[in-house]
Design a protein that fits this description.
The protein is of the alpha/beta class and 487 residues long. 36% of the residues lie in helices and 21% in strands. Strands 16-15-14-13-7-12-11-8-17 form a 9-stranded mixed β-sheet, with helices on both faces.
Length: 487
Amino acid sequence: MASNTAQLFVIFGATGDLSQRMLLPSMYGLQCDGLLPDNMQILGSGRTEMDDEEFREFVRTALKEFVKDDELTDANVKALTDRIHYQAADVGDATSMKSFADKINAMRRGDVVYHLSTAPRFYEPITKALADNDLSGAGTRVMLEKPIGFSLETAQEINTAVAKAFEEDRIYRVDHYLGKEGVQNLLALRFGNALFEPLWNARYIEQVQITIAETVGVEGRGDYYDGSGAMRDMLQNHLLQLLCLTAMEPPAHFDPTSVRNEKIKVLSSLRPINEHHVAIETARGQYTAGAMNGEAVPGYIEDLGKDSDTETFVAVRAQVDNWRWRGVPFYLRTGKRMADRATTIYIQFKEVPHSIFGPASKTKPNALVIRLQPEEKIELNLMSKTPGLDRHGLKFSEVSLDFDMQEKFKSLRRRPAYERLYLDAIEGNGTLFVRRDETEMAWEWVDTIIASWQEAGLKCTNYAAGTWGPTTSTNLIARNGHEWYDR
């Protein structure tokens, strides 16, 4: 076991929704596979007063609800809960934090990971309280959930505050998309195969589309979401991270510094979108009442209970101004209440430069489709001759080479993103976490667009729930001779 492997894992916000749905089940998955260090203890914290046994019962209830029945065993549940303890803490109460510090010091036997599964406004007081109680020095690291701020200015404030307690290499900013199996597969596809990398540039690629489509509405997050919108909630982090991994140069090594340095080069190459171009390079939308799976659903205004111009959909035509990608549009799109749930990277190659088959033989450009959710698949769309005698010229049909990860690896359990992220944090591997300069550079690009919306007076265009977004999105991509990949 590496010397920096954590022996204590502290979860702030351990009674929250994210903890119940994702964090505790992920700890259980690692426990089942024997991946948690033998003597590692888990300390949950929140403002609710309860003792260890009450919290263990809370954990059992969460596991029963959010872990598949055939994966739950009494032995593994007991092995996990035997590690678990609880200490209520209020960061605004010095006495409460002193008791919390005493608990950590009593439990500490080595490195410590703190996961701040809380609202970002608590990051500064929590990390300050940890520093004031000598709990943030060498051998500790902290995980921060997105969003890191609301803008470049607020992100800098949060990062500066946290940096007073933890050095940068001990700050692990979470973007859970980076822990998804499909995202790891994107890296494996690009850098583990000789076939694609020579074609991965503007000479051979016509366009790239990255879509994160959700069928849900605001789901009780209306107050938060209305102050954020799709641009800040999804595009600033998830979509830009996927863009970086798709567009970056091959890193020298698969380590935190090398990977992050290449992502920074992509972000620094993004062409700014100002008020003169924002109306043709972006689209804002807001869902209205419609139908999902045959059932009527309300619009955003009805869900929210008040008028608002917050976007629930955003599309952007991004340009990466470097040698590899100059002239290739990257279309980024995300929205709520869309026709289907999907996270897809669609890479369309250029047409053949000259068809030898004549005008009657119609072909389509090849495309690589990387599906990240709900299923993980890779499809390579190629042209094939349609069976027949071809008396008037060859006829072509599109066929797919389909790499179905679910089928190929059906004997292996599909791991949620937080299992990978938690294990990396426990072992001190920061490769899949976001560095400060990445966060702030992404905010700088996004802030320019948001300011340009305001300057240009660009309002949301309505789209019915259950569709693929507003007409302005269709116009944005059609203006450049392309169409959205909606399959």
